[in-house]
Amino acid sequence: MSSTLTLLFVCFILLSATTLASDPDPVQDYCLPNPKLGAIRTAHLTILTCKNSSEATTDDFVFSGMKVPGNFTDTGLAAISVNPTIFPGINTLGMSFVRADLKVGGINPPHFHPRATEIAYIVKGSVYSGFVDSTNRVFARVIEQGEVMVFPRGLVHFQMNVGKTPATVFGSFNSQNPGMQKIPAAIFGSGINDKLLEKAFGLSPKQIALMRRRFDPKRVR
């Protein structure tokens, strides 16, 4: 290959890696990461090198880490997020998932996933679930065991256990790296200028400081 063609090829790869709007289509049946070969990192992607398919076993495609709830937060939520880092079998398949458990009255605070649509299936319980579209219209209702709700990519959504027993939700994403931003933490825990927040929300400096202490773990309480 000539030097000119080589340069064009490299430019094409870099451009593709930085302009993909979603997970790339796989070019083989599966790609089990080979930890010995490391990873290639770009601005938007982490590309894991594959081990030889002859080394694959059934266990590579089975994950057993969601049998019991995770650790609960002070909002009554326990979440176990599953991505290729802990379940290599889903690498390059364009998906990831989560088990979420909610205590009675527990909430999954408003948040969004910038790179994925989510399907939430109620394994057990009664969960008030919903999302807000770009016109600030709320789509929300209580969904029961066996029902499913979809949260479109990039839209703020939320959940609250309104039943009398603990609830379990299984969420699936159409990206292996959906990303997540919790609204309270993004606003009050990110270092946005206090004066701007005071004007935006009509809060006093004392109230802003209170919110900072709650949502910014880096600040001294």
From TrEMBL:
Segments forming domain Cupin type-1: 64-209
Chief location bin: secreted
Signal peptide: 1-21
Superkingdom: Eukaryota
CC per GO annotation: apoplast; plasmodesma
Keyword Aminoacyl-tRNA synthetase: no
Residues that hold oxalate according to the record: N108, H113, E118
Keyword DNA-binding found: no
Pfam families for the chain: Cupin_1
Keywords of this entry: Apoplast, Disulfide bond, Glycoprotein, Manganese, Metal-binding, Secreted, Signal
Gene3D superfamilies to which the protein is assigned, alphabetical: Jelly Rolls
CDD domains associated with the record: cupin_OxOx
Binding site for Mn(2+): H111, H113, E118, H157
Family per similarity comment: Belongs to the germin family.
Protein name (Swiss-Prot/TrEMBL): Germin-like protein
Species of the source: Rubus argutus (Southern blackberry)
